[in-house]
Hints:
The complex is a heterotetramer, with two copies of chain A (321 residues) and two copies of chain C (346 residues).
Chain A: E1 3-4, H1 5-19, E2 23-27, H2 43-46, E3 51-53, H3 58-70, E4 74-78, H4 89-103, E5 110-115, H5 130-135, E6 140-142, H6 147-159, E7 164-169, H7 172-175, E8 177-178, E9 192-195, E10 200-204, H8 208-221, E11 226-230, E12 233-235, H9 239-249, E13 252-255, H10 263-275, E14 285-287, H11 298-304, H12 308-320
Parallel strand pairs in A: 2-3, 2-4, 4-5, 5-7, 6-7, 10-11, 10-13, 13-14
Antiparallel strand pairs in A: 1-8, 6-12, 9-11
Chain C: H1 6-13, H2 17-43, H3 58-66, E1 73-75, H4 81-86, H5 91-99, H6 132-145, E2 153-158, H7 165-177, E3 181-187, E4 190-191, E5 194-195, H8 208-212, E6 215-220, H9 224-239, E7 245-250, H10 268-272, H11 279-290, H12 295-318
Parallel strand pairs in C: 1-2, 2-3, 3-7, 6-7
Antiparallel strand pairs in C: 4-5
The structure holds thiamine diphosphate (2 copies) and magnesium ion (MG) (2 copies).
Amino acid sequence: MSITYLEAIREAQAKALADDSRVFIYGQDVGPFGGAFKATKNLAKEFPERVWDSPISEDAMVGMAVGAAIDGMRPIIEMQFADFSTVGFNQIVNQAGAFYWRTGVRCPITIRLPSGGTPGSGPFHSQCMEGVYAYYPGLVVVTPATVEDAYSMLVESVALDDPVIFCEHKYLYYHLKADALPSEALPIGKARLTRAGRDMTIVSYGAMVHEAIATAETLQGEGWEIEVVDLRSVKPLDTDAVMASVARTGKLLCAGEAWPWGGVTAEVITRVATEGFALLDAPPVRLNAKDTPVPYHPKLWSVHRPTSETMAAAARNLLRS
Amino acid sequence: MSITYLEAIREAQAKALADDSRVFIYGQDVGPFGGAFKATKNLAKEFPERVWDSPISEDAMVGMAVGAAIDGMRPIIEMQFADFSTVGFNQIVNQAGAFYWRTGVRCPITIRLPSGGTPGSGPFHSQCMEGVYAYYPGLVVVTPATVEDAYSMLVESVALDDPVIFCEHKYLYYHLKADALPSEALPIGKARLTRAGRDMTIVSYGAMVHEAIATAETLQGEGWEIEVVDLRSVKPLDTDAVMASVARTGKLLCAGEAWPWGGVTAEVITRVATEGFALLDAPPVRLNAKDTPVPYHPKLWSVHRPTSETMAAAARNLLRS
Amino acid sequence: MVETAESRTAEMQGRSWKDRVLQAFRSMMMARTFEEKLTSLYRGGKIQGGVYLGRGQEALSAALAHSLRDGDVFAPLIRDTGGRIGFGEDVKDALRTYLGSPLGPMRARDGNVHRGNPKRGYLPMMSHLGSMIPVVNGVLVARRMRGINGTVGATTIGDGGTSTGAFHEGLNQAAVEKLPLVLVVVNNQYAYSTPTSRQFACADLVDKAVGYGVDGRSLDGTNLEKCLEVLGDATERAREGHGPQLVVASLLRLCGHGEHDDAHYVDPQLKASPLGRDCLEVAESALLEKGWSDAVSLERWREEMREHVESAIATVQREPSPDPYREDWTALASRHLCEPYSESEG
Amino acid sequence: MVETAESRTAEMQGRSWKDRVLQAFRSMMMARTFEEKLTSLYRGGKIQGGVYLGRGQEALSAALAHSLRDGDVFAPLIRDTGGRIGFGEDVKDALRTYLGSPLGPMRARDGNVHRGNPKRGYLPMMSHLGSMIPVVNGVLVARRMRGINGTVGATTIGDGGTSTGAFHEGLNQAAVEKLPLVLVVVNNQYAYSTPTSRQFACADLVDKAVGYGVDGRSLDGTNLEKCLEVLGDATERAREGHGPQLVVASLLRLCGHGEHDDAHYVDPQLKASPLGRDCLEVAESALLEKGWSDAVSLERWREEMREHVESAIATVQREPSPDPYREDWTALASRHLCEPYSESEG
Ligand SMILES: Cc1ncc(C[n+]2csc(CCOP(=O)(O)OP(=O)(O)O)c2C)c(N)n1
Ligand SMILES: Cc1ncc(C[n+]2csc(CCOP(=O)(O)OP(=O)(O)O)c2C)c(N)n1
Ligand SMILES: [Mg+2]
Ligand SMILES: [Mg+2]
């Protein structure tokens, strides 16, 4: 058997629905059609009345989920693309994010954001919003980079008592396959040491983890041993794991697919600079997308976001410094 | 004569309207009433048909501004509170922010966001959104901290050919007074060395600049000379000015009123750590608000955000390190 | 317009009409009494932040709450003091939220009109207008999924609030899901200073109902008995499965937007018109006229209520203020996922 | 419903009705011809990203564009190929956007349906449904402020798009401002796979008009002449200062949501109903019946159009692809405010 990242997301939802009658799925075309990406394929058939189509009303979708959650349910909301969550932004950050702190009443909702770039997706179907949501108090923001994590972190997200922004990466939907679904998993909040090394740490998340692995492989051919840390969740962010790796290597490259001002890479570097300054043998380096909308043309796109080539170049510079 | 920060905002708009017939103001209650904070007082009378009330439709307010701007006008949009811009978020970040890059057509709009905390304002009338907007390509984000800057930067914002997010701080509206409006000004993009020093740099912006100044004064009494850098604009962010100051002092404390994950303080520290690592004699330190919604009660609020007391404590730690 | 029948409504509730009117009237009176004290507290500088009153809207708001039953859901807005009290809110809890007592339902974290008790079906509003509508929908969906039928969800929105995308998405969602939502549009002629001519262009806001495929009713919001009739009927129709009910009430805000606002912009002609009637006075006259109360009783009630509010104030003012150093600064229920952010401690 | 008059509409435009019909028809035919080629290119893997067609909607879309005049504003949506061509778009520019030529109007930065030319009043859509409505409003406000009268702004939205807050805020804003906006709601029975029963609960989307205080018209979107009549009338009423015009057209999407979608979910009964008629075939039959064209001419036009599209493809396919290393990566017009972000260069 072989299972894709996308199938793992479907399976996680199937499991959540099967295990807990409080779970339901609501979003555009998630019902009989099975979702724009087929992440809810057959679920409406298997769980009638618990998986259904919403109108094109992102704000009301999230608002409704909040109401259901505070009344005891565990909704999963699918945004058709992460980019469209901007029209449900207020309900996400101000209603869902603030509810528990204001009232003491739990608001367990999972909002799935098909995120990140793929060739030809252009300015409005490619965005990374993890850094924006992580800014807000009261939200958990996760960014699975593997098939296994897509599965186990989604199951765990639905079980958490808080709103979770589940940033699933569209580029990984079909590109990534695993042999089987995991039976054990790291919990949300823990980063993974994807690859051990000695000479440098690359911290990354989402689709960039695979560029980081490719970079490490390239550089291995050049005699370097690169450690790769997959953050898995960006809020909370596993500072300890990052610090431990930097303590081993002394060098930090942090790479993300998001735009360059702020976001996850700045947060990681700031934590290391403020709390682990002495661990650094060289200035930390960050690598992000360019500061323009995400371009449509694949040739432009492939230069807009970091790749294993630009990452390797940045890593070589850092290794030499 | 004495003029408040709020009056300076009004005067800047009066000047923009008087100097350029393409300028208009649109927002809730900005017409005859003169705005919830009176920032447009009498302007509807002075400029009939160029200052008028919108429905409670933040999304359409910004969308309309974009349409008018690409057709040659220079709209100013007043949000009643920065917090309400979340419902116009999509038009701001995806329509206005992306328009020029996608089309080559300029989109000169100024969106005024009455930002930041004041006692008793609570979770939905106190927010700082500069870091969220700065993440997005195509937006200029400014955070005036003085009466003079409120005036000159607003005049300049309206004259710029891009969308500007003008984060005016409500706490400064009445608290801050100047003798006169400025005739000269630093341009947007340049930070100001508010106070020269030797022992440490405090980088800040908005209302926190005044906490930084108070901190510097307190610490002067303890024999320290603290340099205060007022960023003025957070995107672009004047890295050179920050770096020059850190080069002089070797120590960096960066303080902001926003929530602690990411945002301006992380961006500043990351720039210094990546580009000015060798300038640092000690690990940089950041100071932000707590990671919860902004509390209503003044006693809670005064502990939620940084103050000159917590800043002085952080500074002393850093000075001793 | 849907037919209403005084007798039917009263019968359904199993109480005499007179009793219902008197009960709602007492909520109105309590709301007015409470708000007058709030104004004094505000003028005396005892309240940090704003005070937003429902003066002139008590009949409508109280009638809505008194049309609800145990287990129903109520999401009031800023001018719903009458409804909050009618829904069973303790005046002390209202005061606690204004005065920032940590013993209040919002524990000094949120203030003034942003209060509620979700466990009791009393939803605490957030500021962004329109955003409570889908939340009410969500509670109703949850109930339906659990097989709980016969619950109604009620919420209000101003004339200004109808211009928000949230209003539209929320009402449309309720219509598509055929939820038992009672949405009361309170056309008090102004949104802060903005007149309705700058807010919408339809002849009457009730004209929106047909475009959502929901029942619509218009209502004179200054008349308590009319409010009870129409809202009683609307809630029962919702309860019986006829989907969302849009009720548009007309009246005038008899105060500033907040107590900081002198409302100088209100058109004197509107004040002089039937819309400008004070619903409390109208209700009192009606009670006297019908012989359902008398001047002495009214005065006694008012006095009792004043005393009740004053004693509540005395209690709440003696309560501790929140201790920021013992405050639990964790925004997540999953405490193990909260990060220390020690850097922000200074 | 507002009275329409064939003769009046034609007269206003100063052209014979027959000429207008033929002109719009040719836009329809060109749209269909172009889209058929697009499908081949898509199947041949020549297009990165999606292809979204307007098959079955050409009559409506072309009629809208042909109801506009020089200086008017047009903000098409994904299924408006007919309108884009009718508004004067060069097929080469459309292809350039699909194929990502840097010589196209979007310079390979944006793609497929996200194209336009704002300087010509042809607004490039962004994806978020409903978000173009207030932008059109803004252009109309700008014109009015500069004293330019008689400009109309036209845009379309799907049945699904009516559920967005943006639709509501945008239409309401236009109504309050009494702008010359022609908003065409294209009810093609589905939003992607979602049927209208999950999208709205009103009997007819035109029922929304009264709630906004705007004129409303219904329309059989499969009939070109009806489309020209009704849209001609709506644009003229807007132009004459009667405020926004809401036109609701019914038809069926005769293709998948995008070319990746087989549309298996479309109800066969709908396909068999009058809604499922192919507007191009209907128009051809009408032309033949009236003797306004004949089979030979139609075939010749089709052939000419095919050749035109093929030669455009040949041209555009020879154009360079964008060079990412010479691309100008600056999102601000104020170049002096762009930061280098040298760290992202790798
Ligand atoms: C989305 C949003 N924008 C702006 C505001 C600021 N605001 C608070 S109350 C108000 C006026 C509301 O008017 P209306 O809905 O008519 O209610 P009323 O105050 O008259 O009861 C405004 C603009 C808000 N709360 N939410
Ligand atoms: C705000 C928003 N949410 C979701 C989407 C994704 N999306 C693109 S087209 C579409 C369906 C649109 O249906 P409809 O409005 O009926 O237009 P049609 O495709 O039928 O022409 C959806 C959901 C979007 N573009 N914008
Ligand atoms: Mg009102
Ligand atoms: Mg459709």
